[in-house]
Design goal:
Layout lengths: L3 E4 L2 E4 L4 E7 L9 E6 L6 E6 L6 E3 L7 E6 L4 E6 L8 E8 L14 E4 L3 E6 L1
C-alpha cells in the first residue's frame, strides 16, 4: 500500500519561500514519476510540476517556472517542492501524487495520470 505524506506548508509573506516535502511509503518509489498539484478554494486541481522516476527530468507549469523547483531523494523516498518568490496567487492546498505507470515518459500533467495522493498541505501567501 502506497502512502504519501506532505509537510512543510504554512503562512508566508509575498516574496518568501517554503519547501514542501512528500514522504512515500513502499519499496517502488524510485520506479515512478512524482507530481505536485495545487487546489485553491472554488478551483479545480491544477498541475504544478513533476519529476521523472530517475530525477533527470522535471517539468513545471508556466506560472511557477523559475520560482519553483522539484527534486527527489530516492534513498529517503521523498520528493520536494522548493517554492521561492511566492505570490498571493500561489495560495492553495498542495498535493503530491505518484504516477500510475512506472517509468513513464513523458511526464504526466493531469490528475488522471496519478493514482496515489497525499492528504495535502496548506500554503498561504499573504500580501
Amino acid at each position: 500500500q502506497v502512502q504519501l505524506v506532505e509537510s512543510g506548508g504554512g503562512l508566508v509573506q509575498t516574496g518568501g519561500s517554503l519547501r514542501l516535502s512528500c514522504a512515500a511509503s513502499g519499496r517502488t518509489f524510485r520506479n515512478y514519476a512524482m507530481g505536485w498539484f495545487r487546489q485553491a478554494p472554488g478551483s479545480e486541481r491544477e498541475f504544478v510540476g513533476a519529476i521523472s522516476w530517475s530525477g533527470a527530468t522535471t517539468h513545471t507549469t508556466d506560472s511557477v517556472k523559475d520560482r519553483f523547483t522539484i527534486s527527489r531523494d530516492s534513498a529517503k523516498s521523498t520528493v520536494y517542492l522548493q517554492m521561492n518568490s511566492l505570490k498571493p496567487e500561489d495560495t492553495a492546498v498542495y498535493y503530491c501524487a505518484r504516477d500510475r505507470v512506472a517509468f513513464r515518459v513523458p511526464l504526466g500533467t493531469t490528475p488522471g495520470a496519478y493514482e496515489h495522493w497525499g492528504q495535502g498541505t496548506q500554503v498561504t501567501v499573504s500580501s
